[in-house]
Task: inverse folding
């Protein structure tokens, strides 16, 4: 009897929020078994189908820029074969472990997850073997992933603040775009886009713009209790119109459409570490600020009393209010903090990367950030990992375009590589969201009892 | 001792009050109207800020929208795809789903339609059969593409907001590749100087009603018929009842024996089919071929239109006509005053915001505030928590 109760709580406690979900899908029950069988099949395919077809020439992973770079050379067919064999081994271990000690044991979980790390060298080695390039810089790829993950990480932190306080924000895209546009407009028209103090002022303006739009979102959703998703859609539309208007009425007539972006800075001492230092610890300011924002968000939301109050507003605002938390004010603050972070993410586009503004330049990043947030189960560290994953798929797509991968006579078109982040998002959200539980009261307007 | 007199029920009121009650009952119509007035006013302020004359601009906009028979036809022509795409969004709303994917569904429908139209008409297929085939191809293409997020949601719980947005980008990129690729040639017409598909022969084109720019073609009536079909399915069929049940309370629907997962998948497929039909109609009626980067933002605008219409299939038609004619008028406004089209986009976004935030509108214009139940009904969507 006791056993029954235990299994019951595991099955029903997790998706309390998912009352409307489709028929309960196999929740972990056979997950490890299915996973290990799949992995085993993939591993066998790699060993017996993929590896023998790859060239026996040598290829290399380099860790430094071209002239006399530190390099590790290998034979793609051998490396790919070895990775395939490891997959098979991991699959066997996971299968046996889950049969023996039941599902979701640490052993089977880590065997499956651990082998996923090898997907990166697998894909890279295969791609190298299929292209004419002799080597590719792996460290650079990692840094590029972090760099391209910056706006995604900032966007997901923005979403985290809002949603942990109980307000859905699908207007992150619009907040980023508006901040990018408004800040560059002022930077170009007042500071001639010539760098210096105006550049830093522009970044500040971007943050303020994000905060201001978030304040509008809060006013509409928290005070007027409007459907939070409609407000988000309206903000996205508004940002598109507003920035298009600014560009065609102010930036283009002003004649300055591009200018100085932020300068790279090196972290003292660390940037002088040989090989790693210069590549890893030299970067642009918003890139470094992103790490601070992620760490800060984690600390404030999960390690301070005020963070606990914010989260309680997202889980059970009624209970929070009964303990003396001002739900309305807390939600306002959290949403505005989130918007400011999104504003910093917007500045990344116009002031750190491009040094200019184009229509719709955020290109769906705000939505990918939401996917990263869901992937990260509304936790800062995991959301950052999610952002990194999407950054990696973007960086990988760009790298593949450069390498020019060909399968037989068919050279893979650039559109396919550009699709990579979106496909990864769908797979990840479909694979993970079933187990991810949103803050219980997110999306529900709170009405102060009279 | 004396208790305050209880408010009399409406039917006991005097004549003047009855008119007032009618006025308040019309509030669902009045709120959007007032929202438009507010949005136009904010737009005027914006124009004044950059030193333009708002009266001049709005006069040009109005003439561009309804200034002549030709302009009216152009406005209706511009609105045609919005009706189908907005129905795709509105129908999904009724099942509690937020379909941001009309953009991709419309594009995929258009692509399949262009593909079918490209080779189905080589022989002596009569025009009427050809057109039917093309439109059907759009329905199938959009329907299948719409079914993907539905199935994903039903099977894994992946939220449709995320998956449909990703599928939009995937559709745009795939179509760009299909239409531009030269090695191998897939859908590209190699005789054309720019990347695009083969132009459909005249007999495969929907009948032109007015040759305006953009043209008003039979597709407009097809879209009106589609709105009727959507209304009929929702209000007069068992499936439609299930759809609304799932939208209002999925747990209760499940308890009542509705297969929620299957309903979600079907709803998304049907929604995609609506958008796909709109895409096919554009291929056959307006453009005659598919080129990369075409039909941009129709799906996104449709979200706003569906919200304006409060997800009511018949209300979608006037909302779409308003939206389409504003865009068609904006072109004239830009020609005459040099003001960027984006000002109209800002006004449109504000319309949506004010319609959603009807509390603001009601307060400013002194309309009666809604009851709590009606207020809760006005929430079409729900957060991740309760719907994923």
Result:
């Amino acid at each position: 009897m006791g056993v029954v109760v235990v299994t019951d709580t595991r099955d029903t406690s997790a998706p309390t929020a998912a009352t409307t979900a489709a028929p309960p899908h196999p929740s972990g029950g056979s997950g490890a078994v299915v996973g290990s069988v799949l992995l085993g099949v993939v591993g066998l395919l790699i060993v017996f189908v993929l590896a023998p077809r790859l060239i026996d020439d040598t290829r290399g992973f380099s860790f430094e820029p071209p002239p006399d770079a530190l390099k590790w050379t290998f034979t793609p067919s051998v490396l790919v074969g070895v990775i395939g064999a490891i997959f098979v081994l991991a699959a066997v271990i996971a299968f046996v472990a889950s049969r023996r000690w039941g599902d979701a044991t640490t052993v089977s979980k880590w065997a499956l997850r651990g082998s996923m790390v090898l997907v990166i060298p697998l894909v890279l080695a295969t791609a190298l073997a299929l292209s004419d390039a002799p080597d590719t810089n792996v460290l650079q790829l990692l840094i590029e992933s972090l760099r391209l993950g910056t706006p995604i990480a900032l966007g997901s932190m923005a979403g985290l603040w809002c949603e942990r306080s109980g307000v859905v924000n699908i207007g992150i895209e619009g907040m980023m775009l508006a901040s990018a546009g408004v800040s560059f407009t002022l930077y170009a028209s007042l500071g001639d886009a010539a760098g210096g103090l105006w550049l830093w002022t522009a970044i500040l303006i971007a943050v303020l713009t994000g905060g201001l739009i978030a304040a509008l979102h809060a006013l509409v959703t928290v005070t007027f209790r409007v459907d939070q998703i409609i407000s988000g859609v309206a903000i996205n539309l508004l940002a598109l119109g507003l920035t298009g208007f600014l560009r065609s009425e102010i930036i283009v007539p002003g004649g300055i459409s591009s200018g100085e972006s932020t300068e790279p800075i090196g972290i003292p001492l660390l940037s002088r570490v040989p090989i790693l230092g210069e590549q890893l610890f030299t970067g642009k300011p918003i890139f470094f600020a992103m790490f601070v924002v992620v760490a800060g968000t984690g600390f404030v939301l999960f390690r301070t009393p005020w963070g606990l109050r914010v989260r309680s507003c997202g889980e059970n605002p009624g209970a929070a209010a009964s303990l003396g938390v001002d739900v309305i004010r807390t939600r306002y603050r959290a949403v505005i903090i989130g918007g400011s972070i999104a504003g910093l993410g917007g500045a990344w586009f116009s002031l750190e990367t491009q040094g200019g503004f184009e229509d719709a330049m955020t290109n769906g990043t705000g939505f990918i950030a939401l996917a990263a947030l869901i992937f990260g189960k509304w936790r800062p560290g995991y959301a950052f990992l999610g952002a990194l994953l999407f950054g990696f798929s973007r960086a990988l797509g760009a790298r593949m375009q450069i390498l020019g991968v060909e399968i037989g006579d068919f050279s893979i078109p650039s559109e396919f590589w550009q699709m990579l982040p979106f496909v990864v998002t769908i797979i990840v959200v479909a694979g993970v969201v079933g187990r991810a539980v949103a803050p219980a009261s997110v999306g529900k307007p709170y009405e102060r009892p009279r | 001792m004396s208790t305050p007199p209880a408010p009399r029920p409406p039917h006991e009121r005097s004549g003047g009050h009855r008119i007032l009650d009618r006025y308040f009952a019309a509030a669902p119509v009045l709120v959007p109207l007032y929202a438009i007035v507010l949005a136009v006013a904010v737009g005027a302020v914006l124009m004044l800020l950059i030193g333009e004359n708002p009266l001049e601009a709005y006069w040009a906009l109005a003439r561009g929208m309804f200034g002549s028979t030709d302009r009216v036809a152009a406005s209706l022509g511009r609105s045609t795809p919005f009706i189908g795409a907005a129905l795709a969004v509105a129908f999904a709303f009724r099942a509690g789903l937020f379909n941001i994917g009309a953009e991709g569904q419309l594009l995929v429908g258009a692509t399949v339609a262009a593909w079918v139209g490209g080779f189905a008409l080589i022989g002596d297929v009569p025009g009427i059969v050809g057109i039917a085939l093309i439109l059907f191809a759009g329905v199938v293409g959009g329907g299948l593409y719409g079914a993907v997020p539905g199935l994903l949601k039903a099977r894994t719980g992946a939220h449709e907001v995320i998956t449909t947005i990703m599928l939009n980008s995937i559709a745009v990129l795939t179509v760009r590749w299909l239409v531009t690729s030269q090695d191998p040639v897939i859908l590209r017409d190699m005789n054309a100087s720019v990347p695009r598909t083969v132009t459909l022969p005249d007999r495969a084109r929907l009948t032109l009603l007015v040759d305006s720019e953009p043209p008003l073609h039979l597709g407009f009536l097809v879209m009106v018929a589609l709105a009727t079909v959507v209304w009929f399915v929702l209000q007069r069929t068992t499936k439609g009842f299930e759809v609304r049940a799932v939208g209002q309370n999925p747990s209760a629907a499940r308890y009542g024996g509705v297969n929620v997962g299957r309903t979600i998948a079907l709803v998304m497929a049907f929604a995609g089919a609506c958008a796909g039909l709109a895409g096919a109609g554009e291929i056959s009626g307006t453009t005659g071929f598919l080129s990369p980067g075409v039909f941009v933002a129709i799906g996104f605008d449709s979200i706003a239109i569906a919200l304006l219409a409060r997800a009511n299939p018949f209300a979608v038609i006037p909302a779409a006509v308003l939206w389409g004619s504003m865009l068609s008028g904006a072109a004239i406004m830009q020609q005459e005053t040099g003001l960027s089209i984006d000002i109209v986009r800002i006004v449109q976004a504000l319309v949506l915001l004010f319609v959603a935030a009807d509390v603001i509108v009601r307060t400013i214009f002194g309309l009666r505030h809604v009851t709590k139940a009606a207020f809760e009904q006005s929430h079409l969507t729900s957060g991740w928590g309760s719907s994923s």
Observations:
- Chain A has two domains: 28-129, 139-435.
- Residues 1-29 of chain A have pLDDT under 50 and may be disordered.
- The first strand of chain A starts at residue 59 and ends at 62.
